[in-house]
Amino acid sequence: MEERKPLLEVKGLKQYFKGSRQFTVKAVDGVDFVIYPGETYGLVGESGSGKSTIGRSVIRLYKPTAGQILFNGMDISGNLTNQQNQQLRTQMQMIFQDPMACLNPRKKVGEIIAQGLDIHHLYKNHAERQQKVADILRKVGLAPEHADRYPHQFSGGQRQRVGIARALIMDPKLIIADECISALDVSIQAQVVNLMKDLQEETGTAYLFIAHDLSMVKYISDRIGVLHLGHLVETGTTEEIFNNPVHPYTQSLLSAIPQPDPRTERDRVAKTYDYKQAGVDYHVGKRQHLEGTHYVLATDEELAKWTAKS
Amino acid sequence: MEYADREHVLSIRDLSITFKTGAGPVNAIRGVNIDLYKGETLAVVGESGSGKSVTFKAAMGILASNSIVNSGSITYTYHHNDGTTATVDLLKMKTKDIRRHINGKRIAMIFQDPMTSLDPTMPIGKQIMEGMIWHYKTPKKEAWAKAVRLLEEVGIDEPEKRMRQYPHQLSGGMRQRVVIAIALACDPDLLICDEPTTALDVTIQAKILELIKRVQAERGISVIYITHDLGVVAKVADFVNVMYAGKIVETGTIDEIFYDPRHPYTWGLLSAMPDLDTDDARLYTIPGSPPNLLHPVPGDAFAPRNSYALNIDERMEPPMFKVSDTHYAATWLLDERAPKVEMPKELRARIQRMMKEAN
């Protein structure tokens, strides 16, 4: 497993936004993680923790302030050449949160899906283009006839399928799914998550799955990174994070997941974690190795304290 | 729990509401019955479009202008300050009277998105005081003092300073706390929470729910939760109504719904919840999507998505079958002539595990 060559390597990524001359928002402050081909990396954290910013920096909607992003062995954190840009735009795709807002309401679904093909000239003739659109629609559980409809004629779950089809048609190596199920109903969420899992098995695409709902992340992810205030406080395989959460923030996140079990749920009080009161300074902590791929951000004393308790 | 001498607060009977749309009339609510008793917590669960919000918007008199109430009644019972009881039908009241005597003062509502339910141009202190001044003509100084107390009660630190701040200066969780403070400002005896935590993330969600629970216990008020999240329901509710396509399909106490569900739709909802303890590769899903109520639905509206559907489901709508005194479900599977059908294996296993854990 250690021998595999990573598809995406993020090293010390920093993304700052200048608010004013005196004030800079440090949205992402030194984050390292890797994604291997064909696996799903789940990124969780509360709103404002910088998880969406990481996704957008990786796909280069922002220019990273510092740090290195290696995609397929190619450095994509600096200025991109035309050729690099083209490679990046075809091999990495994004699925957005709100399926209504991210589809152009004045274009037919077929046009929306084929837009990437049009831009990169990935078909020889019209028939091949239609064929590709029809294939991808069938793959995501829609009918080829749906290509002639407009986004508003679909339900939320179907629209998100269109979003997935649009990303998938480029045959990408990595899909960044930014809160792609948060806007959907519980029963539809399950449908979309199952679809994404099936498609991964079929195409071998890697996902960077960004969400705040840990229970869904658990279902889809191979490895998880927990993000808080722009720092990756804990990362490891799904089992490592869920069976042995070390960082108090991870523990509070896990304890807050609602369970469909009234008897235990009624009396349970979620653990609270307050950065100011906990007396943890993310800037002093360093990446501590626990076991396997399990890392936690802590100083030596903190690590000793946290592991002793559990 | 004793169910005999409970005091009715809200009772909805045979409610039917139609919306006039460009494509034709949409029968969004098709005969809903809901009962709420004093001091209890009721949850209404359903997918988007099942009509759960519309039902309680009708109770608040804030339905959209293209809606028609076909039939039904919403009776609300409350106490005047001198101890006399009054019972009114909210559907027959004039909008002006509802605004004057009911909204805010008796029944308060908390909406989903705290950013859109607060006025961005007004400091939050003023927004909390507004209702008290309007309903009770409270002197401004007194109202200010009460608003500060309320902010403290909902867990906002430095309340004096916050009073002068605007909504955009607060985080999402804080804003929802302010909305709760506004709702509590006029001491209502019924709180309707319409997806109070959907826009918030899990850690804050847990805190807000704990806050509402605490406030309810302290003040002895009744609370209605409208939500699609069964985890939220499990945490807070005493009674659950499951709603599908404008009808209540199953109603019962929380234990009956979670440990002994009878309707296939409830089975589906419960199975679709991801469970942290199992490692199944796939999540259970309810196939298809909810019906379009633009067209009349013959028989059981859930039948096309129901793998347990019987022939009769396509012709006749099932009545509410009684399971116990508090537990009713609208499915033909409970008819004595129906074949014996068990809930899905996985769900049964999960419930058994939950029961074991609890004991």
Task: Give an overview of the whole structure.
With 310 residues, chain A is of the alpha/beta class. Chain A has one domain (8-309): P-loop containing nucleotide triphosphate hydrolases (Rossmann fold, 3-Layer(aba) Sandwich). In chain A, 37% of the residues lie in helices and 24% in strands. Chain A is built from 12 helices and 12 strands. In chain A, strands 6-7-8-3-9-10-12-11 form an 8-stranded mixed β-sheet, sandwiched between helices. In chain A, strand 7, helix 6 (186-203) and strand 8 (206-211) form a beta-alpha-beta unit. The longest helix of chain A has 18 residues, at 186-203. Chain A is globular. The mean pLDDT of chain A is 86. Chain B is an alpha/beta fold and 359 residues long. Chain B folds into 2 domains: 8-237, Rossmann fold (3-Layer(aba) Sandwich); 244-358, P-loop containing nucleotide triphosphate hydrolases (Rossmann fold), CATH 3.40.50.300. Chain B is 33% helix and 23% strand. Chain B has helices spanning 52-60, 95-102, 114-117, 124-136, 140-153, 159-162, 172-184, 202-219, 230-236, 254-259, 264-272, 345-358, and strands at residues 8-21, 24-37, 41-45, 67-79, 85-89, 107-110, 190-194, 222-227, 239-244, 247-253, 321-322, 328-329. The radius of gyration of chain B is 21 Å and the shape is globular. The two termini of chain B are 19 Å apart. The interface between A and B is large, with 44 and 44 residues.
